[in-house]
From TrEMBL:
This is Secondary thiamine-phosphate synthase enzyme. InterPro entries: UPF0047_YjbQ-like, YjbQ-like_sf. Coiled coil: none annotated. It holds the Pfam family YjbQ. The lineage of its organism: Bacteria, Pseudomonadati, Thermodesulfobacteriota, Desulfovibrionia, Desulfovibrionales. Gene3D superfamilies: YjbQ-like. Belongs to the UPF0047 family.
Length: 131
């Protein structure tokens, strides 16, 4: 298993991690298989979405903030219950196909760490499944 850190700068944001993941694939010489990535935090998640227009990431953060506001009468007293719910909705892990040494994504897609309770230093774990 490989681990790397992502530093976030705002309470809620999407941070591109596609490049860091591809660098890991390149450094390890992985060619054909699957890369499982996992975020071991209860208030951060991983997603694949459009990476061509930064407004998409901003819209995703804004939409989830409207759906799950920070203050909404949650019973959890730490003040980050909305972050826990957002993480559950988005999910902590992804499985990415690697072929020819390249992470296979659609034309406009990228991989993002979703920060819901930052700023923080977040870890991403990566496990290779392949030859």
């Amino acid at each position: 298993m490989e681990t790397f850190e992502v530093h976030t700068t705002r309470r809620e944001e999407l941070v591109r991690v596609t490049g860091a993941l591809q660098e890991l694939v390149d450094a390890k010489g992985w060619r054909e298989g699957a890369l499982v990535v996992y975020c071991p935090h209860t208030t951060a998640a991983l997603t694949v979405n459009e990476d061509a227009d930064p407004d998409v990431a901003a819209d995703l953060v804004a939409a989830l903030s409207r759906l799950l506001p920070r203050e909404a009468g949650y019973k959890h007293v730490e003040g980050n219950s909305d972050a826990h719910v957002k993480t559950t909705l988005v999910g902590p892990s992804l499985t990415l196909i690697v072929s020819g040494g390249r992470i296979q994504l659609g034309t406009w897609q990228g991989v993002f760490l979703c920060e819901w309770d930052g700023p923080r230093n977040r870890k991403i774990w990566a496990q290779w499944l392949g030859q």
